[in-house]
């Protein structure tokens, strides 16, 4: 049976986390607090700052999209091909496909089998 690879869940998590962090940083750099902290013109409203903010925003958006793409391409339910598994860093419990109700088979289950399949 085909299993889902944990490394893809981690890849998607890192991409989404990093993309989210970059968008947060983009907002922080444009905030009033940042302007208040750095009142010198070289830090705010400079061309370099707008380049940095643009890179953060677009980099963040692209990383979020790539993370979502990895998740939708690589963490699809192998039974029905419709549900998508949640991107978790490591195994701690079974997760069930919202479409067909079967547990997602990841490649890092402890002792190689799903809880739901043990007696
Ligand atoms: Zn399914």
Describe the fold and architecture.
The protein is mainly α and 119 residues long. The chain has helices at 6-29, 32-37, 47-74. It has one domain (6-117). It contains three helices and no strands. Helix 1 (6-29) packs antiparallel against helix 3 (47-74). Bound molecules: zinc ion. Residues 77, 79-80, 82-83, 97, 99-100, 102 line the site of zinc ion.
Q: Quick recap of the structure?
A:
With 119 residues, the chain is mainly α. It is built from three helices and no strands.
Show the helix and strand layout.
Layout: H1 6-29, H2 32-37, H3 47-74
Helix pairs in contact: 1-3
Bound molecules: zinc ion.
The site of zinc ion (ZN) has 9 residues, from loops.
What is the overall silhouette?
elongated
Helix content: 40-55%
Strand content: under 5%
Distance between the termini: 20 Å
- What molecules are bound to this protein? zinc ion
Treating each run of at least 4 consecutive H or I residues as one helix, how many helices? 3
What's the quaternary structure here?
Answer: single chain
């Amino acid at each position: 049976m085909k299993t889902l690879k944990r490394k893809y869940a981690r890849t998607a998590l890192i991409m989404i986390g990093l993309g989210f962090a970059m968008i947060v940083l983009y907002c922080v750099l444009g905030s009033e607090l940042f302007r208040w902290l750095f009142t010198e013109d070289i830090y705010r409203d400079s061309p370099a700052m707008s380049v940095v903010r643009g890179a953060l925003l677009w980099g963040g958006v692209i990383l979020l999209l790539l993370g979502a793409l990895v998740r939708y391409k690589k963490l699809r339910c192998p039974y029905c091909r419709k549900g998508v598994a949640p991107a978790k860093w490591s195994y701690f419990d079974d997760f069930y496909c919202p479409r067909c109700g079967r547990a997602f088979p990841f490649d890092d289950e402890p002792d190689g089998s799903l809880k739901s399949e043990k007696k």
